[in-house]
Amino acid sequence: MNAVVLRRGGLSVRVGRRTLVLLAVLVPVLAGLALLGLCHGATWASPAKVVEALGGARGGANVVIREWRLPRVLAGLVFGAALGVAGAIFQNVTRNPMGSPDIIGLDAGAYTGALAVITLLAGTSAQLTVGSVVGGVLAAAAVYLLSLGGGLSGLRLVVIGIAVNAILTALNSWIVLRAELEVAIAAVGWSAGSLNGVGWGDLGIPFAVIAVLFVLLALLSRALHQAALGTAVAVTTGVRVERLRLQLVLIGVGCTATVTAVAGPIAFIALAAPQIGRRLARAPGIPLLPAALTGALLLQGADLLAQVLLAPVALPVGVVSTAIGGCYLIWLLAREVRRT
């Protein structure tokens, strides 16, 4: 048997054995990256000092670890997992390795919604979250409606998504150019995708939203597994495929838009994490758990690299993820060309 079914109450999740092995390997790696993130800063803190700070010890250095470094590390892990899951959802739905939120325009749509909130309203955390989600949903709706002739799958949706992404990127540039100088400077800096300055006050609502979305995704795990076996098999087992796809799209949009609301559009994590996770797990489809773990690993690793490259100046993590993702995209395109 190549899979294990985990049950708790009325909830059951089917997990591949190799995925469990991958989980046992990546969780300690993520813990090590988290510890490194808590140690690294303007001044180095020893692991013993970090443990002391997390235990509630008082003092300036302990406050820095708890109030400044810990929120950033948790944001890197949780947001990376959310982006990995979002990418896996859309690559499963489109059955295309290019079908990720940052490629088909959903990140750009979420950014448009956030820009509208920043320029027209006060731009509070709750408003940014709502604006980003609304913008992402509208972008997804536009891509879906324009793709109806070919169905919600395949190259057609990806190509249309790229076109929608280009239009929204131009719209975002126009909004920034028309905004007041202070707002434009803030928007341009935020558009690079950054975890710099993330604090506890920025994370309460986004973490709650992502937790709810992950629970909803777990409830759909059985139907998702049936759909992965093929549309015909899914229909015969009672799965309403189109309804399932719509639910998955909404969850994926919610994940990527929530991250965008706090950190800005962080490119390529959602594109690369599902494919890397699939290869590590040696799974036939795009499994969600490896994608989430890989996304957390990529984002946290990229953020640490962003802090080190030009220290003491911390780069936006989006700069590093874009550089890494660009290399990955070139490899992926070359591989797809060879296959055709």
TrEMBL record:
Any one Gene Ontology biological process term? siderophore-iron import into cell
InterPro entries in the record: ABC_BtuC-like (IPR037294), ABC_transptr_permease_BtuC (IPR000522)
Q: Where in the cell is it found?
A: Cell membrane
**Presence of the UniProt keyword Membrane in the record:** yes
Membrane topology listed for this record: Multi-pass membrane protein
Keywords tagged on the record: Cell membrane, Membrane, Transmembrane, Transmembrane helix, Transport
Q: Name one GO cellular component term.
A: plasma membrane
User: Quick check: keyword Nucleotide-binding in the entry?
Assistant: no
Question: Could you list the residue ranges that cross the membrane?
Answer: 71-91, 103-122, 128-148, 155-177, 207-228, 248-273, 308-334
Tree of life domain: Bacteria
Task: Cite a single GO MF annotation.
Answer: transmembrane transporter activity
Gene3D superfamilies of this UniProt entry? Answer: ABC transporter involved in vitamin B12 uptake, BtuC (1.10.3470.10)
Taken from the record, one Pfam family name reads FecCD
| Assigned protein family | Belongs to the binding-protein-dependent transport system permease family. FecCD subfamily.
Q: What is this protein called?
A: Iron complex transport system permease protein
